């Protein structure tokens, strides 16, 4: 059946995405977790707690990615690139679900601050989308660049025995680099250094608070 979605259909869809993003274990991945079949090495309680904090940050990062894509989807034109953006958003759902599952394995929980970060990222995405596609795609590229750096730091910081988290983060790193390239090739503007510095500052605030909360 092919019919135009009404305004209320769209609202229900939006609400469904919000719930799937914010309710733990509600997101369904389209690809199996890269940790499937990977055996952990040894790690002690302090290392487990550290890995939990890092994976909570990565999970919140993916909550922000969902919100960003959703906010942009609402306001951006993106006539030629909408399907690519939807594919990227689907891959972010995989990341979200993989991090969520790994957090649970580590005996951890997702961040209590997620609704706050979801709202802020949704707003930023919607504003960027409304300004225009070049800015909107540039925002995706700049965000993915930052997430990539972030994942590299976390790959360094993970306890050596935590091989299952490592497998997840390595695959995410590969996907995010692909999203960044796509957004630039699709015409995304290269953001000026001060804007990127501002984004780094906001992400520092996020990581500091979410590590524990
Ligand atoms: Fe992601
Ligand atoms: Fe991404």
Features:
globular; binds fe (ii) ion; Ferritin; 7 helices; mainly alpha; single chain; 213 residues
Overview of the structural elements:
Belongs to the COQ7 family. The structure is a single chain. The protein has seven helices and no strands. The chain has 213 residues and is mainly alpha-helical. It has a single domain, classed as Up-down Bundle (Ferritin), CATH 1.20.1260. α2 packs antiparallel against α5. The mean pLDDT is 86. One fe (ii) ion binds next to α3 and α6.
Low-confidence segments, given as residue ranges, are: none
Overall shape: it is: globular
Q: Can you count the helices?
A: 7
Bound molecules: fe (ii) ion
Head-to-tail CA distance between termini:
45 Å
CATH superfamily: Ferritin, core subunit, four-helix bundle
The name of the CATH architecture is Up-down Bundle
Q: Give the helices and strands as they follow along the chain.
A: HHHHHHH
Largest sheet: none
Domain count: the total is 1
Structural class: mainly alpha
If you compute it from the alpha carbons, what radius of gyration comes out, rounded to the nearest whole angstrom? 17 Å
Catalytic activity: a 5-methoxy-2-methyl-3-(all-trans-polyprenyl)benzene-1,4-diol + AH2 + O2 = a 3-demethylubiquinol + A + H2O
Binding site for Fe cation 1: 62, 92, 95, 176
Family: Belongs to the COQ7 family.
Keywords: Cell membrane, Iron, Membrane, Metal-binding, Monooxygenase, Oxidoreductase, Ubiquinone, Ubiquinone biosynthesis
